[in-house]
Amino acid sequence: MMMRGKYHLNEWEIRLRKYLKRVSRSTGVQKINHWLITHNLSTAPLRAAPLWIASVLVGLMAVGYEKVFAFVEHTGMHWYQNHPYLIFLTTPLCFCGAWLLTHYLAPTASGSGIPQLMAAVDLAETKAHWKVDKLLSIRIALVKVASNLVLLLGGGATGREGPTLQIAGSIFETIYRLVPETWNKVSQRVMIVTGGAAGLAAAFNTPLGGIVYVVEELTKAHLAVFRTAVLSSVIIAGITSQFLLGPYLFLGFPKITRLPLESIWLVIGIAFVTGLAGSAFTKLLLLISSLRKRFPGLTKQLVFVTGLGLLFATIVFFSGVQAMGSGKELINQALFEGTEHIAWYAFPVRFIGNALSFSAGGAAGIFATSLSSGAMLSSLLLEYVIPVQVQHHNLLILVGMIGFLTGVTRTPFTSAILVLEMTDRHSAIFYFLLAGIIANVAASLILRHSFYEIRKEEFLSQPA
């Protein structure tokens, strides 16, 4: 997965860049600039135009990706339900196919995509800025989508949200690269950070989540540096996706009731346990990755990935579709039908299945799957371990989702705001924030850093 050589523009990129350079130097654009300056008006609209164009493209991409993802997910499940034994063939083949796509066409398209985005932010505007194009490009974005869908077709437990962020970053980076230097454009780092925010907002329909994620994860700088770009792009990407899909909530409107103050220990306890579980999941991913490195060479790697596929197929064969896909339907089942409809083994098969799917080496998201793992663990605790009144189940399931996601990402406030916006349960905001903080503390007992931070450092340390 080494990043060799500097990026070279394709022929279509060269032609488009020359055209844009002519446009930026054209009489019309120069007159507009001159008119704005002489009338003491801001040239910000021209400066922000590339951002706005990229934001619309991200919104369109997110909608299209979501539609195709849902179709492929249901197709994979349909295959299994009609031909259960076929999974022992299709899953290993799809796992290997997803890995080979990234291995040969775009090595940095593997995995979630968020570590690549974080590494690109760190590399932007440094002496090694050319490496950004090895992490974010249209080629990488296309391979990312293809690999993710192939893995999903084989029943893989994966999401699209992490990949969406890398794809969005790739769109913004490509727009930045194509716009000539003569154009008064925003900086490369601002473009990449804004792309990540727009991608997250469009993927989950959570504009606040995108903004908070920028502050908490993508950059440690003051928001003032990015605020205009981030806010405008999040709004445009969100409006674009809502224009096509209509206003919607990722998880609908689950009914929750106020938890008595004397029962606050339930929030603390479930957040602590799910935070530990999320960090343990990260530990498992790192252990499998370390084990895989002991098998160098294409043949051994293919055998390893095939083994992962067969193991996952066995889990699915005996547990059913609960181990497959993003797990969103399981979350809805727990929230709207009740924990009594969730099998006791739903959490372990989601936990292990997600680890096996991600470790195959294809493009795989762990954002949505972490939410489903947290929901299944909470359901397990509420149904078999902790005696709690049924009316409080939904609140504690949402707390568990925040806890597990925080354990993986170490972004407690982003996790809380995402779940808040997914459900529109504003009355629970303080419980959600408390859950994120407690889970972050618990996760640090197992690992100091998030999975994304660890993977980011691996990308940054790769030789040129």
Describe what this molecule looks like in 3D.
The structure is a single chain. By secondary structure, the protein is mainly α. It has 2 domains: about 200 residues, Clc chloride channel (Orthogonal Bundle), CATH 1.10.3080.10; about 200 residues, Clc chloride channel. About 70% of the residues lie in helices and about 0% in strands. α5 packs across α19. The longest helix is centred in the first third of the chain and has 39 residues. The protein is globular and about 75 Å long. The protein starts with 10 loop residues before the first helix and ends with a helix. The N terminus is likely disordered.
Write a brief structural summary:
This protein is mainly α. Helix content is 70%, strand content 0%. It contains 19 helices and no strands.
What characteristics describe this protein?
disordered N terminus; mainly alpha; Clc chloride channel; 464 residues; 70% helix
**Nearest-integer average pLDDT:** 86
SS field, number of helical segments: 19
Instruction: Assign the CATH superfamily of the largest domain.
Output: Clc chloride channel
Q: What would you call the structural class?
A: mainly alpha
Number of extended strands: 0
The helicity comes to: 55-70%
CATH topology of the largest domain: Clc chloride channel
In sequence order, what are the helices and strands, one letter per element?
HHHHHHHHHHHHHHHHHHH
- Any idea how many domains? 2
- Note the beta-strand portion: under 5%
Question: What is the CATH C-level name of the largest domain?
Answer: Mainly Alpha
**Gross morphology:** globular
Gross CATH architecture of the largest domain = Orthogonal Bundle
Q: Which residues sit in consecutive blocks of at least 5 with pLDDT less than 50? A: 1-7
